[in-house]
Amino acid sequence: MRLPLFPLELFLLPGGISKLRIFEPRYLRLVSIASAESKGFVLCQPKLNINDKFEIGVHCIIDDFEQLEDGMLGITIRATKRVSLTDISQADDKLFSALATELPAWPVEPAEDQQDGLSDKLKQVLSLHSLYNEYPASIDYQDENWVVSRWLELLPFSIKAKNQILHEEDFSNLKSLVHQLVSDITIETD
């Protein structure tokens, strides 16, 4: 399926949600295209160099619209699946589009008995995140893949690292990375 591309440093993985402010004409057109038949769009990391190509992204659907106080369009998006991108083209208004092909979902494995409290720490962090408070049905602390994916979204990775994460086929490598990075974090609450 040909979908419009939204190159943005925002990093979402399947199951993630976010709000965006839309103001550029090409991205207003993206919203129109994405809303037609609810086909969505692809969120991808920006190119680091002019000769770089978009290769991978995350298919997102628009869950909600709102008129913001400043008159701009606000949308709430939800990431659904990783996709590979081919046959990339750019319209006159500079909006990119590509053929998006679904990549295999990362396998769901039984939760490991981790002593690092990954889910509990994420609960503390997300309790401060108003968007997840607005969409409680999108939260699944019992799904280790969901928990690891949210940590991967929150941790400060470079654009190059984010693309490597999207390309990773073995989710157990990503789980190990997150457990190593988060295990020593202490979250203070007042």
UniProtKB/TrEMBL annotation:
PANTHER family hit by this protein: ATP-DEPENDENT PROTEASE LA (LON) DOMAIN PROTEIN (PTHR46732:SF8)
Species, as recorded: Agarivorans gilvus
InterPro entries, per the entry: Lon_prtase_N, Lon_prtase_N_sf, PUA-like_sf
Pfam families: LON_substr_bdg (PF02190)
Residue ranges annotated for the Lon N-terminal domain, each copy included: 1-186
Superkingdom field: Bacteria
Protein name, UniProt field: Peptidase S16
